[in-house]
Amino acid sequence: MTDAISSILSQIRAHELRTQGPLAGAAGMPGVGGLGGAGAAGDAAPSNAIGGVRPAGSDFQQTLNNAIDGVSKAQNDAGALQQAFELGDPRADLARVMVAMQQSQVAFKAAVEVRNRLVQAYQEVMNMPI
Asked: How many C-beta atoms lie closer than 10 Å to residue 54's C-beta?
């Protein structure tokens, strides 16, 4: 079960890295930035790390928080790009808006799938005999 979760999280990280490239040009528009920049896993060490040694649950918690932040940022950036297009900004073309919307949709679906897998794993653990 943990291999499936790790696989999904690595796919989310790979998706974030892919989205940084082509849409980075949108960063010059007010309120619109490249997707996935701040949400990439491993951007910063956890704040509760002491002397370079992290607690056991810290990595998973930080990775999960970064993934959720990345999904939120992707949705916010896609919404801002959509709004810029609707307001007639010449730098926000339809193709870029559609790509941003699709990327945010894929990121959200991946996050929902991770949540579903975590709930399923939790239920399996709770049903184990002691």
From this structure: 15
Q: Is the model's pTM score more than 0.90?
A: no
Residue 14 token pair: 């790979």
Q: What's the Cα-to-Cα distance from 21 to each of 18, 36, 94, 125, rounded to whole Å?
A: 6, 10, 18, 40
Residue 123: count of CB within 10 angstroms of its CB: 9
**pLDDT, position 20:** 62
End-to-end Cα, the chain, rounded Å: 20
| DSSP bridge pairs for 50 | 53
Helix (H, G, I), strand (E, B) or coil at 105: helix
Residue of higher predicted confidence among 33 and 94: 94
Question: Rounded distance, CA 121 to CA 110, Å?
Answer: 16
Q: How does pLDDT run across 84-110, given as a tens digit for each residue?
A: 999 998 888 999 999 999 999 999 999
The three-class DSSP label of residue 107 is helix
